[in-house]
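PT: before anyone asks, these are the final sequences, not the draft ones from last week. 606 residues across everything. Please model them as a single complex and drop the result in this thread when it's through.
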Amino acid sequence: MAAYILRRLVSTVAVMAIVGIFIFLLLRLAPGDPAAIIAGRSATEEIIAGIREQLGLNDPMPVQFLRWVRDMLGGDFGTSIFAGRPVLELISQRLEPTLSLSILTMILAVTVGVSFGILAAWRTGGIVDRLLAAFSALGYSVPVFVSGYFLIYFFAIRTHWLPVQGYVPIDSGLGPWFVHLILPTVALSLAYIAFIARVTRASMLEVLSEDYMRTAAAKGASSYAMLFHHALKNAGVPILTVIGISFAYLIGGVVLTETVFNIPGIGRLVVDAINNRDYPIIQSVLILTSGLYVLVNLTIDLAYTLIDPRIRY
Amino acid sequence: MTLLSAPVEAVPMGRLQLSYLPRLARRHPLVLIGGGLLVLLIILALAAPLYAGDPVNIDPFKRLEPPSAEMWFGSDNLGRDVFARTIFGARISLMVGLISAACAAFAGLLIGVIAGYSRSFDNVVMRVMDGLMSIPTILLAIALISLTGPGIGILIVAIAIPETPAVARLVRSVVLSVRERPYVEAALCGGARLPRVLWRHILPSTIPALMVQGATVCASAIMTEAGLSFLGVGVPPEIPSWGNMISSSRLYLAIAPLTIFAPGICLAVTVLAVNLFGDGLRDMFDPRTRRRR
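LR: through. Structure below.
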């Protein structure tokens, strides 16, 4: 077990190192002078030279890379070129809306997706199963910025039930905060509900056809006990895996959702950063999100042994 | 991002013959529905100049008009014909989606086959693939595009690169299982050279899995293109594309909802067609579902 954890940690560090090198080289190997790219088309020679000096671009590449990694490990993610403030400060200011949206989306996707999947597997070919098949085909195919505008049109513009867009910080009251997040959460979670429900259904179907399920039924176990005590526990590993993957992939959808609903989160920070060519921000968000992805995957791999004692490494 | 990928077992290709089509329709209607819809969309897009109006003509006197006989879906905020733009937008969306999916499939196939056969290459390249996979698709594409500025060429590259690792992983896993099969060993013993074995004996077994994954990648590529264009970093704004249309009309949702719904529905239908086709292919190639029928 300890050997496995160690091996897993080493490969995690290796992957992060590769991501780091890749992101580092992206800007350096791009056609043209990185300082000129950052400065924009109308910059003078002095401004470009200043940026080059500020970023330490005159040093050899390995030195630049090691300095970059050292600074990041010390919590210094560089300074935004446009705002002139530390990147980490800018990111932490935008963290609340993004986290609120992500967490609500995961709660909705997991509860609805898992229950949908269990019901569909319980009565294969039944009405829930057919509904799920249709819904999941749609859930995969409608991008969040299309479903988002449909939801806004029908639930905000036409009926005035919910606010059209915007974000209210949690400090200003739980009610307004929640009401503003309903539409974005629903729009963003559709694809994840479809994904989680499909995997839950497949995983449950596999377990339900096992011999011990027949034994449980023969003993007279109730449907509830069969589904939740006997089946769900054994179907848990794949379900947990997809929940982890979904969470890690969420950030891509968050970027689009925040733009549709005008939520001032990290996604909007990135989009604004592209328009301003604020490379330190793009670079930091990339490395932080992929770090999160790797961390979530690591946690899930290690959590397998906790939910399924049969798994031994 | 490949949410749909599922393990697909390698099967011989003998079943893919034309005489199989009628049975295909009966057993796997999804393949025909999705594929047919896709072919229809491609024909509609290619024939756009024959029946749709001018997608870029600006008419300041006809801004945000409701649907009429002249402009079936009304006009947008610059007085452009929404129907024509939607139809012409299909061209760019399908083109970018198909080309980047083809690039990703080809690159993934190449990397996967070599990685499946060479230990040293495998260790290095698959770690790089793991790294690429850990960066969210749309963010990686944004970072790549932010280097050169928007353009069709960089867009295709930026969509293909994040999709490649999933293809490579899948192809590699198929190759790893096939290379141990007796017929590969027999071919090698019989004196066939490695490139020939790879080409004649190993490559064909990866095709079913590659086709299923290709459909997934294609759906994802079309969505990524639209998403990037929606964010303003994809297709240059002067070219009509579904993402651009939604982005430029978003302030007029309350007045002229069709300016957003028309491209949005077309986008969803296109992705749905590709997904149905891919789902159908997976059922068709999956020995488990085949036995059940």
